[in-house]
Amino acid sequence: MKNYLYTLSIFLLLFSGCRQAATIDDAAQRITQQSLLSHIEVLASDEFEGRAPASRGEELTVNYLVSELEQMGIAPGMPDGTYIQEFPLLGQQIDGSTARFTIYRNGSLIQDLSFGSDFMAWPANEAEQVSISNAGLIYVGYGIQAPEFDWDDYKDVDVAGKVLVYKNSDPSHDPDIFEGDARLYYGRWSYKFEKAEEMGALGAIIIHTTPTAGYGWSIVESSWGRERFALKGGDDESGPKPEFNAWFTEENSSALFEAAGLDLHEMLEAAANRDFHPRELEGVTLNVNLSASYSDMSSRNVIGKIEGSDPDLRDQYLIFSAHHDHLGIAPEPVNGDSVFNGAWDNASGTASVLEVAGALKEIEGQLRRSVLFMFVGAEEMGLLGSRYWSQNTTVHPGKVTANINLDSMQIFGETNDIVLVGYSRNTLTDVFRTHAEAAGRVVVPDPQPQQGFFYRSDHFSYARIGIPAIYPNYGNDYIDKPENWVAVTDSVRTANYHALSDEINEYWDMAGMETDVRLIFKVAYDVINRDEKMEWVPGDEFEAVRQQYLNEL
Fold first, then answer.
1. Which regions of the chain are under pLDDT 70?
2. pTM for this structure?
């Protein structure tokens, strides 16, 4: 009997070993169209109320994610043994009925702007009331200071106490500076507002044009017109903040410049010159009245963990991220619909990380490094959940080999290509290329670098603390689709982005999402098991901070 049990145990060990060696492809097969869709159907249902931060919808979302992780046997990822990283938020609601911007020329009223249709604005200093009279305005072009490109839009002009007017985006006319058409962080609206604070400005106004923003005015109105959120106390309490931040429509910006005897489009063009000097809008003053109410609340990141098996590498990590939030419930229904379901953005990314987590769990014994699965909150409000983690890390950034961020996945069918936002910026590109080629596919760079997508999703929060990060995105070389399918899908995406219509619809074909997520899973397996960590390419803007954190180990 003893010999029989011994023989049986040896057989089971050998069988287990053989099975384990064969399960990488088997685990990938676990990721299916239906398994992905089943998560999306739940997360994007009306019951989840648009998954807004600090709402009943978020509560349902968090409970669902924790339940799914527990069912898969994935351990809590927080040091206290829980799945939840709570972070404080300050909710801000603007009273649009009393918000008023009035523009004067030599003391005479020339414009009385309407909140929403003409401008969007909010207190930048957490004030309940902003009341400004006779404020002077200075146009600062792009408002960029970039010594590495010998670029300074301020030219030592004292702009403290003034309202600064900014052109959106960054210079794109020269391929040798600012990465040419590829938008850097200098081109993001958040950089403009941060710079206004640094320069001691009274307020900041960004001129909206669809080409420089990458989206129409309706996106500005819908994104900034609802209750907005910030990490409580602000991200930086080093000094006084401007009294307000704002966006102006192109039409009203043109009228503003015309009042100063300037042509808006000539001034926008002039900003592309390195020799540009700030231009005071002479004779023009601005009155501002804003009222805001505030509420203290909190949102939550959900973090799961699979621990690595290699004694030398298990304290290193690969981070998967996806934001679980969306825009909640609309103030007014449209055709009877008031829920921003966010099926594509970002129930699709959340579902993808869940399925990758389940697939990796099946082969956890083969994973040398550990893996963290971060479902972060309040992304739609400015990457707040991932930013909070980056300021309150649960593992040392130098111990993280890489971040793979999944946001708004391929939902329109299979493609020969897969886009990498962050292509060639770090060694993750090489790993993706290897596995794509093995699958008969090709990796391509972001076809719209001018949109600055690298700075518009959660991977940016990880990159800011040096972690090599990448954002796999949908390709456009469709297989077995009509010739005009790219135009059709672009139209559908544009119509659904941050709209009530972002729901599962007749255009969806989950085959592409299945194929992409299986590829990402195999890339992750490779990154987890490589001897070396991922690296930024020499000279990348995040290389220095990466080295700083590595030196701390």
1. 1-22, 233-239
2. 0.84
Closest by CA to 57, choosing from 321, 339, 335, 402, is 339
In DSSP terms, 318 is beta-bridged to 371, 402
Enter the tokens of residue 447: 């076809």
| pLDDT tens by residue, 16-40 | 444 444 489 999 999 999 999 999 9
pLDDT digits (tens, 9 = 90+) for 139-175: 999 999 999 899 999 999 999 999 999 999 999 888 8
Helical H segments across 22-73, by residue range: 23-29, 33-43, 56-72
Residue 412 near residue 489, CB atoms below 8 Å: yes
Distance CA(120)–CA(225), nearest Å, equals 7
Compute the distance between CA of residue 44 and CA of residue 344 in angstroms, rounded to an integer.
9
User: Sign of the CA dihedral 54, 56, 58, 59?
Assistant: positive
- Looking at this protein, which amino acid is placed at residue 136? G
Q: Distances in Å between the alpha carbon of 131 and those of 127, 159, 243, 252, 288?
A: 10, 20, 9, 21, 6
What residues form DSSP beta bridges with 279?
Answer: 139
Two tokens at 35? Answer: 């398994």
Tell me how far CA of residue 468 lies from CA of 288, 389, 546, in angstroms. 42, 16, 8
Length of the chain: 553
